[in-house]
Specification:
CATH superfamily of the largest domain: Cupredoxins -  blue copper proteins
Strand order of the largest sheet: 10-9-12-17-14-15
Protein name: L-ascorbate oxidase
Organism: Miscanthus lutarioriparius
Domain Plastocyanin-like: 42-153, 165-333, 443-547
Helix content: 10-25%
Distance between the termini: 50 Å
Structural class: mainly beta
Bound molecules: CU-O-CU linkage
Radius of gyration: 24 Å
Number of helices: 6
CATH class of the largest domain: Mainly Beta
Number of domains: 3
InterPro entries: Cu-oxidase-like_N (IPR011707), Cu-oxidase_2nd (IPR001117), Cu-oxidase_C (IPR011706), Cu-oxidase_fam (IPR045087), Cupredoxin (IPR008972), L-ascorbate_oxidase_pln (IPR017760)
CATH topology of the largest domain: Immunoglobulin-like
Strand content: 35-45%
Signal peptide: 1-30
CATH architecture of the largest domain: Sandwich
Length: 582
Amino acid sequence: MPTPRRPQRMLAAVLLLLCSLAALSVSAEAKVHHHTWDIAYHYKSLDCVEKLAVTINGESPGPTIHATQGDTIVVTVHNKLETENTGIHWHGIRQIGSPWADGTVGVTQCPILPGDTFTYRFVVDRPGTYFYHAHYGMQRVAGLDGMLVVSAPDGVAEPFTYDEERTILLMDWWHKSVYEQAVGLASDPLKFVGEPQSLLINGRGVFEPFHCSRAPNGSSDAACNVPRSAGCAPPPLFTAVPGKTYRLRVGSLTSLSALNFAIEGHSMTVVEVDGHYVRPVVVDSLYIYSGESYSVLVKADQNPSRNYWAASHVVARERNTTSAMAILSYAGNDPRAPPPTPRPEGPAWDDVTARVEQSRSLAVAHPDHVLPVPPRPDRALLLLNTQNRIGGHTKWAINGVSLAFPATPYLVSMKRGLQGAYDARPPPETYDFRSYDIERPPPANGTVASAVYRLALGSVVDLVLQNTVALNKKSETHPWHLHGHDFWVLAYGDGKFDPERDTARFNLRDPVMKNTVALHPKGWTAVRFVADNPGVWLFHCHIEAHVHVHGHGGGVRGGRGQGRPLAQVYHGLWTIQDPALT
Ligand code: C2O
């Protein structure tokens, strides 16, 4: 009889012991972070003009949550809005094993009613730069948002070094209430709130009508004499110590605007996108779409005797909002002293080529952090992103179907096995890509449905988003965000995607992973993901108030079934089905 079994078994036992000791030491270090939040309206003057904002413990934006990979975050939310529901989404956190904490009202949970309390509990499993924001109606636009930063554990090296880090949250801001915006979207005829009054950097801005910002030496125009609260001026960004390198975690939670962010005189090295290490790329300015986050390294290597402008500018829509300014100061200077140079004007708003090129250059993983892509999909969905006329209204739709949430959140009906709680017929997986003309406004009538795509657990799924011109003959940029998963960004293409020709262009060697990706005008974007996280997950354009300037387009979906008149733009919905969920 052969005998060498025993040493092997002993070895296995020792290994097991070592492993469990290692696991123990990790879990002993993992912390639980408790936060208690009161959500309430307060008067705020974020851009020096007073307005009601939805706040967290009186603040808008809310506090940055800091944690380390593997930690647990517990947030107890008290809804003190009196007449309004709420729900909070943790954007970029995949919620592995915790789909009930995703915070998408109508999908993973019922709304948190006025006076009610709901506790979110989830693990932050991966380092990176993330967000949180309201996911009920258009409430995010009212100021309920903030950043969530997950650090790598001590002793785990990242593929770059820096001295200190700062967070930079970019937003757009309207003076009209979120109710006026939402009701306007749902009205017939539609009332569009228009371009934002201000852009905010870390929740601060200075309102100034756009035309006034361009009239150099003051103007006799009464509209330009904006009453301002005392001390209203471009806010400090941070104070840099000469020679130090700063990691800036920059995120955008705009409602409508695509942005360009830059710091005068300082280039930026992009090192992280949506929580993944990217092949470093040096840029003068960063294009950033709603729902995206980046870490950029900035070295304080300029003349330290003066301050510098940091700015965010609207791109992709005709600029009609004064750019936001903040001040990067060097140690020893007055941090509020305006730089001696004129305010930067930013790139041309309509330079699509520059934006697509930057998207492409930032779609490659860091060479030491390539996560292998499955070589082929089990299922490929070709999704036409456009508007349709539905029942006399203009709605955004995917393959002709505009999503409406059912009365019962999907996750609840699936878990309880409720029959008929949502449309059972699956939505179309493709569109007539051979004959469809993306240069012409969509001809077809669409439908509204609560149908979902059901994906087999563990399957590999390709999503190819196809942009077109909408009913107003324009093709816009749509940032698409997937809940519950990250996807590999395989390609950004121009024109119409042809499955036979264009799949050969997919980057299967070293694509970066993301959770939000831009779909550029008249182009297509291809991503791949593994459906390995049971739950019901939204896939949607992250533009919250999506209507067109000329008043006849509209991303309008009344909260049918929820009995709320809030309009919302959701172009799609996905579900990953686990047998355990039904
Ligand atoms: Cu940040 Cu469903 O979104």
